[in-house]
Amino acid sequence: MNTNDIKKYKERYIHFDFVKLPGILRTHLIPGPVSFADLGCGDGPWFNLLHQQGFISEARPVYAVDLDNTRLERITTRFPWITTIVGSVESIPNIPDQSVDFVISTMVMEHVFNEKKYLFEVRRILKPSAKAYITTVFKRKWAVFYRRHKGEFVLDTSHIREYTDMEGFQKLINDCGLKILDIKLVQLKIQIFKPIFRIWKRRKRSINLGLRLLLMPKLPIPGYYELEFVVKRQE
């Protein structure tokens, strides 16, 4: 993601704190506190929920990695004990080898220039028994959306790739030394009133009941899915 893409991303996407763990993530999380890393964390929407539920704390190392220092500063304001790292998720020398119990990296893989370097870096920092929860964009070849890039429908013009071949995708994961433990496709939907929040600037990352109700109405995006998967290091 280049400088212009980061600027557009910062203006277009505001990350609210998550209030519920996805089922596949809940299944594979281990009791905390754990050593933890969020790769491509943005505003850090996972941290508050994970902290409240005891999965992360000051007792174990927690890393937040992102290209945008402004977003990381927001995390530091809320969680001064989290180690923030400005940089690409394709190379994170600040995180030692085999030092992390759990990794989360959501909707990042479609943005990285070198997907294999990214996956090998996930593998490098995982402890032998550790797991990673990763999500990315998957679409059917007939998928349609209102955005287009190079003559094709795309979910976001900043995406370097959008995966269409499940068999090829699973081979990619395997070739990078990771074993898939769980995998799931979830229909992607667009929030009808989301454009309101692109111009409504807020400092708080929490979302009250009124805003949550406004964000509830959603329409499915034909042929587009969030691909969730959990991996561990191959033995």
UniProtKB/TrEMBL annotation:
GO biological process terms, semicolon-separated: methylation
InterPro entries, per database record: Methyltransf_11, SAM-dependent_MTases_sf
Keyword Methyltransferase carried by entry: yes
Database matches in Gene3D superfamilies: Vaccinia Virus protein VP39
The keyword Protein transport appears for this protein: no
MF annotations from Gene Ontology: S-adenosylmethionine-dependent methyltransferase activity
Domain Methyltransferase type: 38-133
Alphabetical UniProt keywords: Methyltransferase, Transferase
Domain of life: Bacteria
Cross-referenced SUPFAM superfamilies: S-adenosyl-L-methionine-dependent methyltransferases (SSF53335)
Protein name in the entry: Methyltransferase family protein
Organism listed in the record: Pelolinea submarina
